[in-house]
Amino acid sequence: MVDVLSQNEIDALLAALSSGEMDAEELKKEETQKKIRAYDFKRAVRFSKDHIRSLTRIHENFARFLTTYFSAQLRTFVQISVVQVEQLPYDEFIRSIPKMTILNIFEAEPLEGRMVLEVHPNVAYAMLDRMLGGTGNAPAKINSLTEIETTIMERIFSRAFDSLQEAWKTVLDISPRLEAMETNPQFMQIVSPNETIALISLSTKIGDTTGMINLCIPHVVLEPIMARLSTHQWFVSEKKMRAPEELDALRQRVNKAELPIVAELGDSQLSIAEFLGLQVGDVISLNKPVNNGLSIKIGEKLKFIGSPGTIKDRVAVQIDEIVSEGVEEFDE
């Protein structure tokens, strides 16, 4: 970002140049020198800003779906929103979370590899308290989960992955599945410590209890679909290949669709008095000669030119000409 000088700083700079305290040539040399930027190899940049923006959009939808899901399940006020999306080493993520927390390890086919949904104990125990009939307050002291509590937690978060599947539909059809639940981050090693991850932090409020839900997605998991996270791919709708059975079903439905077909002999204009005075045997003059073909319309569009006739004592029309697309109905 370019620094903007104040008027006093500009006056001081001009005075220094005039008095000879500062050399203009030296300033030019400093500007032409190459700027060196430190690069930390332990914090490798694997996700571009474009990727981060796409992940933010996806998980803003995820937060909205989660809000609806948890509000219905817990029957209380729930508010979830994306705080930030950042990239950092996996080891740094492990060191940043509490020693006692809820770690939902899951896979999402067709993506290869494991991901983690980390839920702060305050949030997890508030959910558990609501499911067991409480007011939704987290306990002062966090203890290890019992078997019953673990089963309830697994059911809550297994269904929460449906929201993740819905949020990712615009990019990829995934099938998230809970693999295991851990409470100690030291026992969870899904990738190497130096592997770059995308960390999506969700601020969560359940009643009066607040906490964080963190979604950890390793770079190696997203690497095969990184191109789909670009802005171009995000806004350009991708044509999806339909399965053969879907095409057959669609073809059958189209074949059964009914369309009105009308063969017009012509038209004529009459006054109200003439119309009221019509009697059996009167002749109405049309706007077309008898040797002109009939206009055959499909719906409201002229598609064919035909000739009148009969087949087995029934009125029929023979198609003589196919009208090109866009041609209006002909007149004499």
TrEMBL record:
Domain of life: Bacteria
Pfam families: FliM, FliMN_C
SUPFAM superfamilies from the UniProt entry: CheC-like, Surface presentation of antigens (SPOA)
InterPro entries (alphabetical): CheC-like_sf, Flag_FliM, FliN-like_C, SpoA-like_sf
Membrane topology: Peripheral membrane protein
Every Flagellar motor switch protein FliN-like C-terminal domain range: 252-323
Keywords in alphabetical order: Bacterial flagellum, Cell membrane, Cell projection, Chemotaxis, Cilium, Flagellar rotation, Flagellum, Membrane
Compartmental location: Bacterial flagellum basal body; Cell membrane
Family assignment from sequence similarity: Belongs to the FliM family.
PANTHER family: FLAGELLAR MOTOR SWITCH PROTEIN FLIM, YOP PROTEINS TRANSLOCATION PROTEIN Q
Protein name: Flagellar motor switch protein FliM
Species this protein is from: Paenibacillus lacisoli
